[in-house]
Each structure stands twice: as structure tokens, then as C-alpha cells.
UniProtKB/TrEMBL annotation:
Organism field: Pseudarthrobacter quantipunctorum
InterPro entries on file: Haem_Oase-like_multi-hlx (IPR016084)
Classification via Gene3D superfamilies: Heme oxygenase-like
Family matches, as SMART domains: Haem_oxygenase_2
Protein name: Iron-containing redox enzyme family protein
SUPFAM superfamilies on file: Heme oxygenase-like
Domain of life according to the entry: Bacteria
Length: 351
């Protein structure tokens, strides 16, 4: 991915440090740490902080495809891992607060051990009570062609590397949960056929609308909450202690995506696009109807049966994604209903 434009002092300091190889720029690293230490205490909403979310996004990107022109030696540089941890702590705290609000009056089983079916029932209950704004219905019935493109831009930040954050969890699991995750991921990666990988299908959708399908091409255009929705997956996937959260995240994703994808496909067909564009959404209608059972009972449920103390983390992962995705959907819909773009105003002004 190309190095994006900085959004404030912290991301500027990060990019200055990454411009050189590790071990050659101690001054730049010290400047990054001082800048972060000065900025963090003043941040009232880390989920909506453009500078900090971009910084965290790029730190995580070192563990994915890397950044163009940046040495791969930075991936595990202790100084950057420390910076990442300093950002992760308040970010996780904010996610837990948002997740608790999304959970509402959720009641957990009284017994210390729960079955996989009981875990699945709790998750399906959460999915059913999700009352967030329906972006999918708006796309199906009202979205203009320009708004469809904006929708794809927001989704591209994750969908072009779909499945990768969850794959980090495979070596952290065992037995039934691991087998279930591998089964789901095999489908996400196209069953061994690169042209059927879900990220490749999404790229084809973007090309069908004349858009740039390059990985990370639209990072500069999206607001902090779009980056936060991806950063929380990386936070969960890269930290073994949060293996319960990444399984809960995937489970609720699978449980809440089949019907929205049906509506998304309908919105694109309303504008005259055919299967070449809608294949990504159509594929998820069918695949996620199967995956939701595997993710709920065998992945999340199997993990909790093996490690009962992880139930709260499974539910944290599920409710955190509901909270952040709900916030993102509310931002997009409010922007469109007010007749303005949901993308960053600075980028639009520059364009």
C-alpha cells in the first residue's frame, strides 16, 4: 500500500520515522513518542480521531502487505510495537465502552459452563436485536450512483484484504474452533482459486463501476471511523489474549451479513449493473447463510466450550463491531440524507 497523506502530528511523526531504516533514525523515533505522549491525553474520542486511527492503521499495515518504500524490518521494531501498544490501550478501552452500550441488557447464562448451542443462541439473539441504522435498505432503494461508489470506497478499506485479520487467529485456536475457522477461511479465499477469493470479487465490483481497485487506493478518502472498523479487527487478530474477541467478531459478521448483502446487490441492479458487479454480494448471501452456523456453534461456541472464561471476550468482539459499524453506517446515512458526501471534506476540497 502507498503511504497515505498524514492527518496530524502523530501520523506525520510516524511517516518521518518510517522514511529511514530501523537503527538509523533514533531522533525521529523519539519525536514520534513525544508527539504521541502529547496528543493522547487530549484525545476525547479516539475512535473518531483521524490522526490516531491513521497512525494505528499504518502500524497494523506493517503486518499485512507493508507500506511502499518502507523497510519490512520495521514490522517488529520494538520502538514501533511500543507505540502501537500505547495506541491500542485507549482504543480498546473506548471499544469496550461502546460495546457495553451496544450490549444493553444482555444477560449471560448463570452457570459457569455453557454449551456451544447456548453461545450461538446468545449471538443470534444479539444479531436479531441490532437496531442500528439500515445502510443496506438505503442502498437498495435510494442510493444514487455516486453514493454507491462512496459505499464501495468505505468498504474497500477492509474488503480488499477480506479474511486476513481473522486468519491471524488460526494458530491461536485449537480443536473444533480451529477447524471451523479454517473451513470458513477456505471459502473466503476462494477454495484455492484466486479469481474466486472474496477480495478479488470485491475488486471486480469496483472495476465494474470504473473505480480504482488497488489495495489501499482510497485510504485518504475515508474518515477515522472507517479506519477504526478495520483497526479493531487487527487489534483482535494480532493479540492472542483477544482471540475470543476475534471469533465473536467473525461470528456476528457472518450472522448479520446475508440479508444486507441481498439488499446491496438489489441496489446495484437497480442502477442496471449485472452479475459481473453484483457477484460479490450474491456470493455472500449464500455463503454467509452457511457460515453463520459454523461461526456461531463451532467457532465461537467451540472456543467457549474449550475455554469457558473467554465467553465475555467473544461477546465483547461481537458487540464492539456492532457499535463501530453502527456508528459508521449512521455517519454515512446522515451525510447522504443531508445531501453531502460521507467522505473526508479535506480530500474532496483538494480534488
Amino acid at each position: 500500500m502507498k503511504v497515505p497523506a498524514a492527518r496530524g502530528p502523530v501520523s506525520t511523526a510516524l511517516f518521518n520515522a518510517l522514511a529511514e531504516r530501523p537503527g538509523t533514525n533514533e531522533d525521529a523515533l523519539e519525536a514520534l513518542q513525544r508527539t504521541l505522549a502529547g496528543h493522547l491525553p487530549a484525545t476525547l474520542d479516539i475512535i473518531g480521531d483521524d490522526d490516531l486511527q491513521l497512525t494505528l492503521f499504518c502500524l497494523y499495515e506493517l503486518h499485512y502487505s507493508g507500506l511502499e518504500g518502507v523497510s519490512d524490518d520495521w514490522e517488529w521494531a520494538p520502538e514501533l510495537v511500543r507505540v502501537r501498544q500505547l495506541l491500542e490501550k485507549p482504543f480498546e478501552a473506548a471499544l469496550r465502552e461502546a460495546a457495553a452500550e451496544a450490549a444493553g441488557d444482555l444477560e449471560l447464562p448463570a452457570q459457569s459452563r455453557v454449551t456451544s448451542d447456548e453461545v450461538a443462541d446468545i449471538l443470534f439473539g444479539l444479531a436479531a436485536q441490532d437496531s442500528g441504522p439500515s445502510l443496506s435498505r438505503y442502498v437498495a432503494k435510494q442510493a444514487s450512483l455516486g453514493q454507491l461508489k462512496e459505499f464501495l470506497i468505505h468498504k474497500s478499506i477492509y474488503q480488499l484484504k477480506e479474511a486476513d485479520p481473522h486468519t491471524f487467529a488460526i494458530p491461536r485456536l485449537s480443536g473444533r474452533a480451529k477447524a471451523a475457522l479454517v473451513e470458513i477461511q477456505a471459502d473466503e479465499y476462494g477454495g484455492g482459486r484466486p479469481e474466486r477469493m472474496h477480495s478479488a470479487l470485491f475488486a471486480r465490483t469496483m472495476r465494474g463501476l470504473g473505480m480504482d481497485d488497488g489495495y489501499g487506493s482510497y485510504v485518504d478518502a475515508v474518515p477515522a471511523v472507517s479506519l477504526a472498523a478495520v483497526n479493531l479487527m487487527s487489534l483482535f487478530g494480532l493479540n492472542r489474549r483477544l482471540r475470543g474477541a476475534i471469533t465473536g467478531h467473525l461470528a456476528i459478521y457472518e450472522m448479520t451479513s446475508s440479508q444486507p448483502n441481498r439488499l446491496y446487490g438489489r441496489g446495484f441492479r437497480r442502477h442496471g449493473f449485472d452479475t459481473d458487479v453484483t457477484h460479490y454480494f450474491d456470493e455472500h448471501v449464500e455463503a454467509d447463510a452457511v457460515h453463520e452456523q459454523i461461526a456461531g456453534r463451532d467457532l465461537a461456541g467451540g472456543l467457549v466450550e474449550a475455554e469457558p472464561h473467554l465467553l465475555s471476550d467473544v461477546l465483547f468482539g461481537a458487540t464492539a463491531v456492532m457499535a463501530v459499524d453502527g456508528r459508521l453506517s449512521a455517519h454515512i446515512l446522515q451525510s447522504w440524507e443531508n445531501g453531502v458526501s460521507s467522505l473526508r471534506a479535506e480530500v474532496l476540497d483538494a480534488a
